[in-house]
Amino acid sequence: MITNDNKKLAQWAMDFALKNGCQASRVSLYKGSNCSFEVRDMKIDRLTQASESSLVIHLFADGRYGSFSTNRLEKIELEKFIQNGIDSTRYLAVDEARTLPDPSLYYKGGGKDLELTDPRFDSINPDEKKGLALKVCDEIMGKDARIISATSSYGDDKNASYMVASNGFEGEKSSSTYTLAGSVSIKGEGEARPESYWYDSAVFLSKLVKEGIGTKALERALRKIGQQKTASGKYTMVVDNMNSSQLISPIVSAMYGSSIQQKNSFLLDKLSSKVLGENVTLIDEPHLTGKRGARYFDNEGVRTSRMPLFEKGILKNYYFDTYYATKLATAPTIGSPSILTIEMGSKNIDGLIASTGKGILVTGFNGGNSNSSTGDFSYGVEGFLIENGKLAQPISEMNITGNIITLWNNLAEIGNDVRESSSWRIPSLVFEGVDFSGL
Amino acid sequence: MLGSLAAPSFLGGIANAANDKAAGVAFALNHFGVSESDMQKALAAALEKGGDYADLFFEHTFRNSIGLQDGAVNRASSNIDFGMGVRVLAGDQTGYAYVESVTPEEMLKAAVTAARIANSSGSKKPENMTEKPIVKNYYAIQQPWDLVSVKEKTPYLQVINDRIFELDNRVVKVNASLGDSTSHILFCNSEGVIYYDYRPMVTLGAVCIMEQDGKIENSYASRAYRMGAEFLNDDIIETIAKEAVEKTALLFDAVKPKGGEMPVVMGAGGSGIFLHEAIGHAFEADFNRKNISIFSSQLNKKVCNEHINVVDDGTIPFNRGAVNIDDDGVDGQKTYIVKEGVLASYLHDRISAKRYGIPSTGNGRRESFRMMPIPRMRATYMEAGNVTEEEMISTVKKGIYAATFTNGQVQIGAGDFTFFVKNGYLIEDGKLTQPIKDVNIIGNGPKALADITMVGNNYEMDNGTWTCGKDGQSCPVTCGMPSALVSKLTVGGES
Questions:
Q1: Residues of chain A neighbouring B443 (CB-CB closer than 8 A)
Q2: Dmax of chain A from CA atoms?
Q3: CA dist B197 to B61, B134, B278, B327, Å?
Q4: How many CA atoms lie within 13 A of A405 on its CB side?
Q5: What is the pLDDT of residues B61-79, one digit of tens each?
Q6: Is A432 within 8 Å of chain B by CB?
Q7: Quick one: which of A230, A277, A204, A154 has its CA closest to A399?
Q8: A117 CB contacts (<8 Å, ≥6 apart)?
């Protein structure tokens, strides 16, 4: 997808910056193509198709830094664009921490193929794509008298990028994604029209789940009928694998170099301290072949490797890019997560529910936020009461509130049911003593 | 940065653009390097498979931002985005394709792709084009961003930083940013409408981080308008600095309330997020034409107290949600969605208006040339009532007062909506007492609307950096509200 001409253009842009006053530069050139078919009630509702490309240039001039991006890739326009970028950068304050990475940290190549791009991508017949979307809708249509609307979609995209830096980095990446989704609205109680969805996503079309997406979406919608809020109180909370990543997200945000250096993190000064429960071992695992998020280098070209984040609850690493590591006078790691894995247990969601005597299964979050300085959170939720290890009343219009550190210290059990489509491979989770607000 | 691709001669006339209508499209054709004949050919190709409507949307956007961290303006970025999208409608079905080069060949390629949504032999011909003038320009600017250098912008962020540190000695970090964007939009469709719109935007914000007795808190203040560089002045800098400090300082004394159902007094201004989430989205007509909104059978029915009027308005000058002409080619408008307690109108785009057999309300908006237009809100607000905020609070024995907000969400069909209260107060025996922070509030749209029992006389628009997300598209909006009492919502908190 990335041609020699593309590479030459990126190299030319970098050289142009260096010849016009920059002491260092990094250029990334991106290309992508995508296509989607959306079906509503067995009729094609929307089709879209496009290809695109863009160039991002990072300029380091006289101790100053700016980043500039454009999708106007003719040289005559790029010349003006880069020159204007250099002019703008020169008006900024000097920031000595802005440098390219130490070249010794760069990925030098040689890794085996991570198998993130489907070789079939460009040869798939549009009728096959349309057929997959129609099949999902067909699994829903007419299957229950309460169905108001059935929609489904097939989407694919392929992205490739090439990056070159003036102190010796050159690297290339590409990936493909296929997604098949179904959603259903049904007649609920009163004016309510509960809706639910299901989807699968895969790097290779052959690995995409094509059967049962619509059926599962319908089942998830029907089980919502009769949702109501229940009494406020402390409950054992089971969170399914569609939603468990939301609860790791504030922790990952708090590990970024920008959060630490800006003192806007509840994980400040916690390195090597026991922060989370003993049962939490969270790893950045970048080289899992064929898995979304796999990569040999980060956004700066720094090579990736297996990196423990928490080991038995002890914070082992932050995400430090070159800039914030320099500011903090520490060693850089990588700038952002690759693939997150957590040490898993032995049960799937059914097993976790069965072993929970009384509690609430959360199957969806509805808004809410968390405080990046303190870790305090409050989120809207929906799901089901669990009674005697079985799902009972569907619930909605409730909030959970607490502190994310306390929550993860009350992690009782970790499931084994990771969703393959996610780069954050977090299975279903069970937490004790969570504050639910309802009636 | 200096925008070398802009056209200074035209930009100089922006303030008078409404008086110089012919220059609009003529400028745009030259700017994009296209001719009416090329566009007619693309529209004809788009309709070739039997589509009954087609449009072309050209966009050239320049974005710039500068940022301050650790006391210095030390980062800048810019982005140029250029391209055109072709949309074809066949009934309520849509075909869409976009390209990043607007040569006649590329336009035709996109048109042929989008045309595939239709599949009949009939071939409608596009009509001859007539310029649709911008009758009222809601964002005529004085000083185009293209002509303002980074050098001229940096002192404003430096002053924000310095003022925040001066105002409170607990401040440990300040992050400030100034972003501007300028979009040139050229639109034409198969019904012969062609227009040019110049869309400016500015956002200015500051995050304040304070430390007290080993505890850290953060909050922020921001403003956003469709304005040029005339937006920058000493007053706006002082306002943002003070607001960021006040909102952060409050948090050290704030607690989490006890959770559960209780009355909530929504403070004036940002509480408009309640309208946006509780009813605004569910009134968007795409959800209603598909019969999947909880309000789908409520049109022309009484949904709340007869003293309540709610508006979605694209005509507020310089407002972040202002729309001269929407991305369907329909004039910006002020639309009553609730009039005297009755659900008066949904928010329509071209497809839904046709389905309902009424004129569009001008809510068809798109994030960029990469997206098809869908119904979106603009500035959504409730008109003022006649109760003072003090009276309202005095009627609450035990509840909360919600003052500032960060984000919200809604489930269109079930009607459950949420908004996150960054700070507020407990109400005890009719008085504001302990400050509170970081609580999510959840309710159900129709119930919450019916539970509004008092509306204040203190309407305020919140001109913060509100961005609405829907179907993967981001859209600039605003919201506003007088204080209002909702008799029952579920407040997140400890049990």
A1: 397
A2: 72
A3: 12, 8, 32, 10
A4: 17
A5: 999 999 999 999 999 999 9
A6: no
A7: A230
A8: A158, A160, A174, A175, A176, A203
Neighbouring CB atoms inside 10 A of B155's CB total: 12
Measured between beta carbons, the chain A residues lying within 8 angstroms of B294 are 191-193
Q: How far apart are CA A437 and CA B314, in angstroms?
A: 37
How much is the average pLDDT of B367-386?
A: 96
Contact B73 A93 (CB under 8 A): yes
- Given a contact cutoff of 8 angstroms between Cβ atoms, the answer to whether B256 and B390 are in contact is no
Size of interface A-B (CB pairs under 8 A): 276
Confirm if B238 and B472 have CB atoms less than 8 A apart: no
Strands B478-481 and B379-382: parallel
Whether B25 contacts chain A with CB within 8 A: no
Are the CB atoms for A430 and A249 separated by under 8 Å?
A: no
Choose, out of B75, B302, B369, the residue to mutate when testing the contact with A (most A CBs < 10 Å): B75
Q: Hey, are the CB atoms on B78 and A376 less than 8 Å from each other?
A: no
| CB-based contact A67:B64 (threshold 8 Å) | no
What is the per-residue pLDDT across B303-317, written as a single tens digit (0 to 9) for each? 999 999 999 999 999
B291 reaches A (C-beta below 8 A)? yes
Does the beta carbon of A403 lie under 8 angstroms from any beta carbon of chain B?
A: no
Inspect the interface and report whether the beta carbons of A263 and B260 lie closer than 8 Å. no
Angle between helices B104-115 and B36-46 (to 10 degrees): 20
For residue A238 the two structure tokens come to 């089971």
Residues of A in contact with B442 (CB under 8 A): 366-367, 380, 397-399
Cα–Cα distance for residue pair A434/A382, rounded to 1 Å: 14
**Inter-chain touch A149–B260, beta carbons under 8 Å:** no
Q: Given phi > 0 = left and psi -120 to 50 = alpha, else beta, which region is B285?
A: alpha
Q: What is the pTM of this model?
A: 0.93
pLDDT at A190 > cutoff 90:
no
Distance CA A367, CA B273 (A): 12
* Residue B406 sits at the chain A interface (C-beta within 8 Å): yes
Residues sharing a CB contact under 8 Å with residue B489, sequence separation 6 or more, in sequence order: B261, B262, B263, B264, B441, B442, B443, B448, B451
Treating both helix axes as pointing N-terminal to C-terminal, what angle do A75-90 and A4-19 enclose, rounded to 10 degrees?
40
Verify whether the Cβ–Cβ distance A88 to B149 is below 8 Å. yes
Tell me how far apart the terminal alpha carbons of chain A are, to the nearest angstrom.
56
B415-455 residue pLDDT tens: 899 999 999 999 999 999 999 999 999 999 899 999 999 99
Is B100 part of the contact surface with chain A (CB cutoff 8 Å)? yes
CB contact B116 to A (< 8 Å): yes
CA B330 to CA B361: how far, in whole Å?
8
Taking an 8 Å cut-off on Cβ atoms, the answer to whether B490 and A437 are in contact is yes
Q: ipTM for the complex?
A: 0.92
